[in-house]
Design brief:
It contains 8 helices and 8 strands; from the N terminus they run βαβαβαβααβαβββαα. The protein has about 230 residues and is of the alpha/beta class. It has one domain: Rossmann fold (3-Layer(aba) Sandwich). Helix 2 packs antiparallel against helix 8 and helix 3 runs parallel beside helix 5.
Length: about 230
């Protein structure tokens, strides 16, 4: 069986928080392949601040090139760029289900903020039959402490996804008799955001602490986000 990670997003721009997340998820779950999938037309984003998909794709390529250990398993996919219309996750997951071998097990990777809006996504309920989830959380929770964080997450899962999901201590995930598993993993660097980086650029402030060097050079040379 192959374990396949699907990490989608706008990546506007990709930053060291994204890279750290990839590294930590890889270390924790030992995925055989890890697809990074930039959205062409993200349905939950205002289009004005999103630069052309080809530039975002190139920044991802530049980022990964600076981390040789990622080259062994990371694959940069332009599947959403080739598809017309909004980049819906259900379409992307169905694509990978159709092209990957039947023995592949999918893990859809996303941050806690996105997960807590998943009930607004197109055909979101169907997603939980097709793929497991790895939800990246902040160690200190959603601006709340650990115990309350888990109460918020459990209430959301039971209220919006299925009330028969239950947390399994032995498996360290939420399990369901029909739907796929939901895992949670703490990622220290999630407090970095693309919005912060774009705001720094607009103010003429340096971003070298937040993006790989090749990405910083690319942004400057192309005059992005100014």
């Amino acid at each position: 069986m192959e374990h396949i990670g699907l990490f989608g997003g706008t990546f506007n721009p990709i930053h060291v928080g994204h890279i750290r997340a990839i590294q930590e998820v890889q270390k924790r779950y030992a995925l055989d392949k890890f697809y990074i999938i930039p959205a062409a037309l993200p349905p939950h984003k205002e289009p004005g601040d999103v630069v052309d998909a080809k530039w975002r794709l190139e920044m991802i390529r530049l980022s990964v090139s600076e981390y040789p250990e990622l080259l062994k398993s990371v694959i940069i996919s332009d599947v959403e760029l080739k598809r017309s219309g909004p980049s819906y996750s259900i379409d992307t997951v169905n694509h990978f289900k159709s092209v990957l071998p039947d023995y592949s097990r999918l893990y859809f990777i996303l941050g806690i903020d996105a997960f807590l809006e998943i009930d607004t996504w197109k055909s979101f309920s169907e997603l939980f039959y097709l793929t497991s989830f790895i939800v990246m959380t902040r160690p200190k929770g959603i601006n709340i402490d650990g115990a309350l964080k888990w109460k918020v997450l459990e209430d959301y899962i039971k209220g919006k996804i299925s009330d028969t999901y239950k947390f399994s201590i032995s498996r360290s995930c939420f399990v369901h008799h029909e739907k796929q598993k939901i895992f949670f993993v703490d990622i220290d660097s999630l407090d970095i955001s693309s919005t912060q980086i774009r705001n720094l650029i607009k103010k003429g402030r340096p971003i070298k602490l937040f993006v790989p060097k090749k990405v910083e050079d690319f942004i400057i040379n192309k005059g992005l986000y100014i």
